[in-house]
Amino acid sequence: MTPGPDYAAPELKWGDVNCDGAITPIDALLLLQAAAGLPPAGCANLVDLDCDGALTASDARTLLTHLIDIAPLPAACPSSGTG
């Protein structure tokens, strides 16, 4: 199915694992799955939140602390492509 003319792709956001334009607990779940060795979701380049080159439980913890308003997300890694 081809998107219609009014379709706008979601804006890529730092921390958005599944590329849906929103940062939610689902993103943290997908990140934990990737840390456990399952294939990462589509925007894996947006979720190495500590910029260590690996998707880990530490990245998921950082995402969860952001979701419950304990801490903001860190700045994007230079290699993330988010600017």
The stretches of 5 or more residues where confidence is low (pLDDT under 50) are: none
Alpha-carbon distance between the two ends? 31 Å
Number of helices: 2
Q: What does the radius of gyration come to?
A: 13 Å
Question: N-to-C SSE series?
Answer: HH
| Shape verdict | globular
Structural class: mainly alpha
Give the integer mean of the pLDDT values. 84
Compute the number of strand runs. 0
Work out the helicity level. 25-40%
Note the main sheet: none
Indicate the proportion of strand residues. under 5%
Structure description:
The chain is mainly α and 83 residues long. It has a domain at 25-76. It is 27% helix and 0% strand. The chain contains 2 helices and no strands. The chain has helices at 25-35, 57-67. The longest helix is centred in the middle third of the chain and has 11 residues, at 25-35. The chain starts with 24 loop residues before the first helix and ends in a 16-residue tail after the last helix. The mean pLDDT is 84.
What's the short story on this structure?
The protein has 83 residues and is an all-alpha fold. The chain is built from 2 helices and no strands. The chain has a domain at 25-76.
Task: Record keyword descriptors for this entry.
83 residues, mainly alpha, single chain, 2 helices, 0% strand
Write the SSE topology.
Blueprint: H1 25-35, H2 57-67
Helix pairs in contact: 1-2
